[in-house]
Every structure is written in C-alpha cells, then in structure tokens.
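[09:14] KT: can someone run the structure on this one? pasting the chain below
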Amino acid sequence: MTKDEQTNSHAALTDDNHKALWSGRFAEGPDASAVEFETSIYVDERMALDDIAGSIAHATMLGECGIISAEESKQIVKGLESIKNDLKNGSLKIDYSAEDIHSFIEASLTDRIGEAGKKLHTGRSRNDQIALDERLYLRRVIPSLVQDIITLIKTLVEIASQHKETLLTGFTHLQHAQPGTLAQHLLAWATMLSRDVERLKDSLKRISLSPLGSGALMGSTLPLNRERTAELLGFDSVTLNSLDSVSDRDYCLEFTSDFAILQSHLSRMCEEVVLWSTVEFGFIDLSEKWSTGSSIMPQKKNPDFAELIRGRTGKVYGDLVNLFTMIKALPLAYDRDLQEDKEPLFDALDTVQANVKIFTAMIATARWNVERMEKSCEGGFANATDVAEYLVQKGLPFRTAHTVAAKAVRLCIEKNLPCLENLSLVELKNCSPLIENDIYEKISPRACMKNRKTLGAPGNIENQIKKLLTFCDEALV
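[09:31] RB: done, structure tokens below
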C-alpha cells in the first residue's frame, strides 16, 4: 500500500459510513500502519459475490421476521443487487481502503440507500458472516475444480483407449517388474484422480450447513430464523452449535488436505513424465508448446511445465501446514488469527486448479513412442512371475514354482542371456520337468499382458475404461 493509499485508508475509517463497526469503543482512530497491517480486502475480495448473496438472504429473513420493516428489507436487497450487478459489469471497483470485503459492501450499500443500509448488520457478526462467506465461496468454486479434474480423467481415458495394446513395462523400485500397457498406466493415473473427485465432493457435503445467525459466538436475542436463511442460500440445514460455528475451520483444513493429496498425485504423474521424456527412457515426446529450451545448450528440450507442477507441490503442502499451525491450540471462539485462513486456502486452490489445467493440456498434446515402450518389455526378466504361475497351473506349489523361476533367471544371468525366452527347452526342463514347449507362447510380453485378466489388470482394460467414464458422468450430476 502506498503512502497516499495509507492516508486514504485512514481517512475512510473516520468517515461515518465507512467507519469500522468496532470504532465506537475508541476515542481515536487507528494508525495508518495499523490499518495496513490488519486489512484483508486484497485477499477476501474474491468473496464479494458470496458476501452479497449471504447479505441478501439475511436482509430477506430480517424483513420476514419483522426485525426490520418489509420496506427496509426491500431497499437493502435492491441496493445489494445493484452492487452485485455493478461489480459484475465493472462499473463499481473495489475500494482497497476498506478493512475487508464485508465493510466495503456495507459501506457501498449505505452510500446508495442511506440509513436503511445500516440495518443490514442487525443480528449478525463478522464472525458468522465470514464463516458463511467461506462456505458459500467453496461451494461455488469447488465444482469448477471437480470439472477440471474430470476433464483430465477423460483425457487420460481417451489416450488409454488408443493404447490398449501398447506394451509398457511395469516398474517397482524403478526396476522392471511385469509386462503391462500404456493404457494400464494412464488409467492408474485416472483412478488416482477419481479419488480426488470423490474427496472434494464429500467435503462439499460437510459445508452444506449455514452458520449464519450464530452471531459473535452465542447467537442472538433477536428472533432470527436461521433455518430460513439456510433455505434461501440452498444449505441442507444449520450448524448445531453457535460457538463452534464461528470458530470452526475444519473445512479449510479438509479442502486444503484434499488439494494437497491432489497435488501429490500430479507430482507423481509429472515425475514419470519427466523420466519418460529422457533419452534413457524415450517413452514420451512432449509438444514444443509445452517444453522449453536452454540458454546455453542449443539441443535441449526440457519438460519444464511438468517440473514446475512437481515443484509447486511444496507450496500446497506449505499452505496445509500453515493452516494446521494457525489452528493449533487456538482457543474458542473467534480469534483474529482466523483472518489468516483465507490466503493459504485460496493459494492452494489456485495452485492445484492451474496445475490440473496445465497438465491436461500438456498430456493431451504429447506423442508416445510405441516402439520404445514395447522394447522396454524386453530384458529384465519381467515375465519371471508368469513362469512361476505357469508351473502353479501344472500343480506345483507357488513357493516351489517361485524358486524354479528364480533358478531360470540365475541361469540366464550366468549365460549372459537377456530374456527367459532365450533359454532352450532342455535348459528350462533342467529347472523343472513340468515345463513343456507351450511355455514360450505363454511368457512373451504380449501374452503375459493379455493373460492378466483379473479385474483391474491390463487384460481387463475395457472394464476399467467403462467404469471410469461412468464415474465421470455420474460425478457431474
């Protein structure tokens, strides 16, 4: 804030219509630097429309209950509607000299309709007002994030549908494990993301209770109808305890936890994109639109966007730790510490939403090196488990079959052979007399992949695709 803005801010708080509601207790106004230190309007301005929605419902209820006159209620609602429209069309600009978005809207209302505007805050505290605004805001914006995640899931499913037969080694400990497909891997990403959708939607259920009418902490002596404001705002019901209503920030913790888990998934996916784009792997070729070069090395094509998404994981984790630390040991009910809840919440939301959109665009435009991925299934003895299971089907106990397969692997290593298929039938029979010539057709990488038909396995890919698409359709309802 500049020197002039500080002066204007200080002056605004001494004007009758723009004074902070708490100013009546004080003989002198706050210092300009104190105003600058405590203001939150730069953070909470994004909740302007939510604050107006809550105020319209509150004013409507006050009029219906006879707490203010019906005419005053209509004046307030009409004034708030005009402020909302002017904010939307840009003819009204946020006044950053206001203490917070609530003060700005109430002052704007009083400027427009006069004394009636001063009655809006009847039976209401900033404490229940901000608790309401945050819930309204999250309820409004989270569906947009859910939609973005579903778009990413559908993008992954679409790519997977084109690569149901594209072989790709599965890894554990970054070592060759078992033959799989690119489709199987991409659908694993999509399944991770589907849980993020479920978490966010489940978290929305817990904020569908209105805290309005809880007052500062102990409700009100006025005959407020909390159920009516909840109904007008589309909540399922009202919060149970007024003290908890204004001090609860579980929803901030819960949504930011959801964001952190989502971000961890994006980070893991980006790590694999970075690995796969290396010369050593060569599985994926990112579009030049989603790559950058080097200021000194002309040949470079760097996966910077995947790296940035991965790198911003620390921001989201930090936001969550910020909130947990703020809430820790905080006594009931409201403490000014809680003003600091919005910045980490909003930062985490903005970060993950941007990351989801960027990852979607990046992965949708990538090219896949099918030949290189299929070649990855050669060597590494990724079909050793299939040898063991072949013997199990011949009646051998798995523990014994495991030992036989390991013996065959050791034999390959001793003979400097890259694959179990390179062993002759005689050599395989020396490992176990149960092995017949049909083993070769059952342990090729493609056979290994196709024979894994249990639910969720790469040989059962169509079922996964169908279920994920159904999930996406149902999640949007």
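[09:33] KT: thanks! The longest strand covers residues 175-181.
[09:34] RB: yep, looked fine to me
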